[in-house]
Amino acid sequence: MARRPPPVASGLKGRCPECGEGHLFSGLLKFARGCEACGADFTDEDAGDGPTVFVIFIVGIFIIPMALAFQLITKAPMWLTMTIWIPIIILVCLYLLRLLRGIMFNLAWVNKAREFRNAQMRQKQNIPDQNIPR
After folding, report:
1. Which helix (H) or strand (E) holds 81?
2. Three-state SS string across the chain, please?
């Protein structure tokens, strides 16, 4: 079996965490159902909310102060500042979100950090799948 690629490098490239060849995304931010190169199944995988939190922190620390500095230094009208900076903020967020989703997905894959659902837990403990009265 081939050696797995480094998770951060393959995540930055948007590649499969198993082989490093297939595409991780089928759209801008949507994960593919699986790897077309090695057949790894991505249907039950998710990067969670971590990438979003990191994007909020990064944009809040770096991009927002730049927009405020632009406003204060140029004394431009508010509509001009908003017209310039809102598209920049949106594009930076989308770009960072794709990168960080790829990295965190690949790190979770390599470390076998899978989501464990209630149905799986009941199945593992031989508990029948039924509605529990409240």
Report:
1. helix 78-110
2. CCCCCCHHHHHHHCECCCCCCCECECCCCCECCECCCCCCECCCCCCCCHHHHHHHHHHHHHHHHHHHHHHHHHCCCHHHHHHHHHHHHHHHHHHHHHHHHHHHHHHHHHCCCCCCCHHHHHHHCCCCCCCCCC
Mean pLDDT score of the chain: 86
Q: Around Cβ 89, how many Cβ atoms within 10 Å?
A: 15
The position carrying tokens 């140029």 is: 74
- pTM of the shown model: 0.77
- Which residues of the chain carry a pLDDT beneath 70? 1-2, 115-134
Residue 3: its pLDDT value, please? Answer: 80
Tell me which residue of 113, 96, 116 sits closest to 105, measured CA to CA: 113
